[in-house]
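Revision sheet: structure tokens.
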Amino acid sequence: MKRWKMLACALMACALTLSLVACGGGDTAKTPADSSGDAAQSGDAAATGEKIVWKLAHTCADTTAVNDAALLLSERLSEATDGNFVIEVYPNSQLGGNREALEGMQFGTIEMSIPNVGMLGGYSTSVSALELPYLIEDVSNFDVADKVLNTDIMTPIKDELAEAGFLWMGSWYQGSRHLTTTKTPVHTPADMKGLKIRTMESELHMAHFNALGANAVPMAFSEVFTALQQGAIDGQENPYLNIYTQGMHEVQGYVIETAHIFDVIPLLVSKTAYESLSAEYQQALTEVCEGMVMDEWEMVDAQNKECKQKIIDAGKTEIIELTVEERMAFREAAQPVYDEYAPKIGSDFVQSLIDAQQ
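Predicted:
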């Protein structure tokens, strides 16, 4: 009798375990393949009220204004669709770097990303124009950049990326890139002669600093602080946010406000995922993305200004604010970059970006 009781208990335990597994399975988070399937059928979702869940992957830290803007975008889209269209935000390269995010968009496992424009050169020739130094002549406010980046002038870039499967939904940015040096106060291009300056692994970025008389040294971002600390390089260039959060101001004597690049990071959407949406959800997504651009710029600008003030308060780094004339002297010294690369990018297109600012 005891044996039968033990067997009965064992059978009941198995049954209970199976029932718990089945209940848990109903609430399990969807895999990338599941999310992709939802996107593929999202045209029906608008009618049935079924929830659509997209992934937005980026490499910025979760403490940055860029990530805050991505979360705000998700919140606004959810509100616009009564909670039925949700964007899950994955910062800190959680789903991989920029390259992996773009590949994920092509494979259908990621619907949105915010990559650096330097990653898009393989998909678009025109996009490289945004890496030309001093392309935005007046960086004192957003009015000039707005005329260039948020108008139909950007159509060649958008068309080329669309052919590769990416829709440009907004010209976000992460601040203006400034020069820092360890020991050299820089006011003119002549002051740059012979300095070893770290750049991103971008042909145009390297050409820019070489044209100024410096020696461009391409280097991974993760290696920059140590290289500065050990004197392997004499300086680098980044927005204030990166300069402060990476502690570069601790080992740099000067920040020179060259603002040589208005650092665009486009908000991209998978064309396949977008086209799978109902017209109602396409409109909602488009309107929310367009409405977020200037808000993102202002959020990033505020954070960069906050980081600048923290650097000033630390008292170890001198800020050199170039006059308009001094900055334009750098633009003139960088003209060889335009002479070499504008024909490759498209001279007429580059000129249209310049003319739009007049």
